[in-house]
Amino acid sequence: MVSGPSPGCGYDAAVSAPEPATAELPLLKTHHIVMGRLHRLHVQEFGVPGGRPAVVLHGGPGSGSSPLLRRGFDARRWRVVCIDQRGCGGSTPRGEIEENTTADLLNDLQFVRRQLGIETWLVSGGSWGATLALAYAAFEPQAVSALLLRASFLARREDIEGFFGPAAAAQRPRAWQRLSRAYEAPLLPALARALHHGARAEQESAAAAWWAWEQALGNHIEDPPALVGEALARQVARLRIQAHYLLRDCWLDNPPLPALCAQVPRVPTVLLHARDDLICPAAGAQALHAALPHATLRWLETGGHDASHPLMQAANAEALAAFAGAA
User: Fold this and answer.
1) Of 81, 103, 121, 246, which residue is the least packed, with the fewest Cβ within 10 Å?
2) Which own/partner contact pairs does 20-28 have at CB distance under 8 Å and 24+ positions apart?
3) Is 237 left (phi over 0), alpha (psi -120 to 50) or beta?
4) For 2-155+252-326, which CATH class?
5) Could you give the 3-state DSSP secondary structure of residue 54?
6) Which residue among the candidates 196, 220, 294, 309 is catalytic per the annotation?
7) Model confidence over 253-297: pLDDT tens digits?
8) How far is CA 132 from CA 94, 107, 154, 166, 200, in A?
9) Pick the catalytic residue: 74, 84, 159, 277?
10) 306 assigned to active site
11) Tens digit of each residue's pLDDT (9 = 90 or more) over 112-133
12) Count of C-beta atoms within a 10 Å radius of residue 223
């Protein structure tokens, strides 16, 4: 199913998956935490109160938490904390970009951990969530017991430009032609102007175009159904935040994320990546593994950038079972 080395990054390689995890973790608590003058974080805990703590970081930037990201955690073993980042999901105000930087998110993670009385936790994240997990591990290394990173995004200029670049366009020419006809190059600044400064109709048009491009690259859907109503409003808010971060290299350009990995603790670390991921290409996973040589890199032969793909879900569950068995 998954190629690459077998588990061996600090947990017991002989541990096999225990009894199957429950399909959905029970909700323990919901918190609303005021951060600064603007933001109110929506934080939920799932699983069992005495379980091994874990925090799940959603992607985007801007996406918000979802039940999909909690799959694979055994409700009998884990206490799972899900945080909607600033302006995302159930956090308010929705789509707010003021006082919303990577440094703010790192301080939020530290504050939430302390508020919940957690000393150390496994940090799990995919795509931008993996980026934030690595930045957090460098920021508060003593609080990280393990790392589980899926479809890692390194936030380098080449990664950001590659999303709208020639290689991606060659893979999805029809979707690319629709996008490039509607917005002048360079595309990211053009889309950001519409999302941040345009009238409502302009914001909605830009969000719909960006979302359709993501669907083509990430889910291989060339002609997705049109977004309307609340679904479209959510994408406007999400992509306002995403453009805000990407235009600024996610505040991770000095030092860049691979260099920052020197400060990441040598804790058990698993990297999961599909070879055919077009949003976060495989070269990024190779660069990350070079920066974290103690990590285990597990390749999936297919799966793209889809967190719900069966191969990714199985690999994620296997890694969590091994982590839980070593606790």
Assistant:
1) 103
2) 21/71, 21/72, 21/73, 21/74, 21/75, 21/317, 21/320, 21/321, 22/74, 22/75, 22/76, 23/71, 24/67, 24/70, 25/70, 25/73, 25/75, 25/78, 25/80, 26/75, 28/79
3) alpha
4) alpha beta
5) strand
6) 309
7) 999 999 999 999 999 999 999 999 999 999 999 999 999 999 999
8) 20, 12, 10, 27, 30
9) 277
10) no
11) 999 999 999 999 999 999 999 9
12) 11
Q: What tokens appear for 150 in the block?
A: 């899926």
DSSP structure class, residue 154 = -
Strand partners, 39: 35
CB contact at 8 A, 212 and 205: no
Q: Can 309 be counted among the known catalytic residues?
A: yes
pLDDT band at 23 (very low <50, low <70, confident <90, very high): low
145 catalytic? Reply is no
Taking Cα atoms as reference points, which of 154, 105, 160 lies closest to residue 291?
A: 154
> What pTM was computed for the model?
0.91
- What letter represents residue 155's amino acid? A
CATH 3.40.50.1820 domain range(s) in the chain: 2-155+252-326
- Using the structure block, give the residue that is written with the tokens 């950038």: 305
pLDDT single digits (tens) 169-185 = 888 888 888 888 889 88
